[in-house]
Amino acid sequence: MAKDKQEIILGACDIFMYEYKGDPKTDLPEHGTVESDEHNVGHCSGGFSVSYKPTKYEVKNQYGTTVKGFITKEEVSVKTGILSWDLNNIALLSTAVLAESEADGVKIRKLTFSGKGQALKNVLVRAVHTKEDGKKIRFTMIGSGGNGFDMEFGEKELTVDAEISAITYKTGFLAEFEEEM
């Protein structure tokens, strides 16, 4: 198959996130399950970035020349700035507990940070970019928050800037890119 060496990707992507409790021994959910309105985080600012950081080990001979290299560790993380306000999305990024109640006819939602150490939620993250020809590039990762998030109520729109790091939830899988051809 000939490569299009002139293809340049420009533009944003749709981001989907939800707490993932799937069986680690089964395949990831179908695209339609992940890419639903329910899991769409809405508008984002500043794009979506993927960071891949390998740890390299080099075997050197008696002359100090590298004769072979190995990757001994891989780390993948994503960053995004979520514009659309939804406490469910913020709850995915921490150990905070989301609760709903009603007082005097007013529905109340609270996201409470306890300060106690707890297990982080497993989060399936999917970014979908649609190319000019209508075909899609998908990035999928299972990760967890724990790196915190920032938000500022100020002169500009509120953005939840978050970083999610990949975890080995499924054996042999940290993250993947998929491109429709």
Number of helices: 2
Please give the number of β-strands: 10
Structural class: mainly beta
How would you describe the oligomerization state of the chains in this entry? single chain
What does this structure look like?
The structure is a single chain. By secondary structure, the chain is mainly beta. 6% of the residues lie in helices and 47% in strands. The chain is built from two helices and ten strands; from the N terminus they run βαββαβββββββ. Strands 1, 2, 3, 6, 7, 8, 9 and 10 form an eight-stranded antiparallel β-sheet that branches. A two-stranded antiparallel sheet has the order 4-5. The mean pLDDT is 90.
Keywords:
single chain; 181 residues; mainly beta; eight-stranded antiparallel beta sheet; two-stranded antiparallel sheet; 2 helices; 10 strands; 6% helix
Give a brief rundown of this model.
The chain is mainly β and 181 residues long. The protein has 2 helices and 10 strands; from the N terminus they run E-H-E-E-H-E-E-E-E-E-E-E.
